[in-house]
Amino acid sequence: MELNENARIDTSQIDDQRSSGGGGGGIGGLPIGGGGLTGIIVTVLIAVVGGFLGINNLTGGDGASTQTGDNTSLTQKCTQSEAVKQLDCRNVLYVNSIQDYWVEALPATFGEQYKASKTVLFSKRVSTGCGSADSGVGPFYCPADDRVYIDLTFYTVLSQQLGAPGEFAQPYVLAHEYGHHIQDLLGTEGAMRREQERNPTGANEQSVKLELQADCYAGSWAKNATGTDDGSGQKIFKSISQEDIQQGLDTAAKIGDDTLQKKSGGSVNPAEFTHGTSAQRQEWFKRGFDTGDPKSCDTFAAGAVS
Ligand SMILES: [Zn+2]
Predict the structure, then answer these.
(1) pLDDT digit string (tens) for 276-295?
(2) Alpha carbon 5 to chain centroid distance?
(3) φ and ψ at 158, to 5 degrees?
(4) For the whole model, what pTM was predicted?
(5) Terminal CA-CA length for the chain
(6) How far is the CA of 83 from the centre of ligand 1 (A)?
(7) Is 165 exposed, middle or buried, given 0-12, 13-18 or 19+ CB atoms closer than 10 A?
(8) 279: CA distance to ligand 1 center in Å?
């Protein structure tokens, strides 16, 4: 994958809360492995968001995101030459590419207008419309305030603890979260939520379908990413290789529910799956990539996910 160093990096799509967030407290140990993951999962369930690692619930959300960050230093950094070499500026470009894709793809595919969603960069802790969260929950989307949240140190977790070091993991993660934003815009997310309330015993199956669809949407973005531009005609990517796509697939394999359950020291319990197995996550990302068409991502169709 090669980013175009001439592409304008649009930081207005970001809310940089890294200097305002958290403080004190420390990172408190990332809860992957050693049973920490299960500790988080049993927290009280109030607000529900598309957590990347199957941790879907934050506590105490009131629907309003109160904080805003300060983009000044990010904007300065990302307008300098060679900005494209900086992790945060690269991630801004990934967000730019993903949203540029959906601006066209959403009306073309589903006849709906795309509404922009900011990505909040935070450090350690963040307060959101879905409640407060710490980095341990991984990236997530909050439907109550329509924002994607990520602590970029998550990529170190992906690389060092979950064994997915490839850089393409990063846009894959973001494209998955924006997939949840698409589901929110299309009403898929709300419909799933109502179905979960109607039939609580099938709630996890519904969640798996939602998550696999977000993976498929990430795949359809990946297929079309080289066509995205910065709004002034500069392509955002110079190239995306087969190796990059393989890194996306490898990442999907490392974050399947079965793989994470094994990694956290427990036995594999399909009834607790919320995001799908490694094989399913790969399959749906690949489907989106192979077709390049979000319409092919109907995980809710009868028999689509078994
Ligand atoms: Zn998700």
Answers:
(1) 999 999 999 999 999 999 99
(2) 24
(3) -55, -45
(4) 0.89
(5) 33
(6) 29
(7) middle
(8) 16
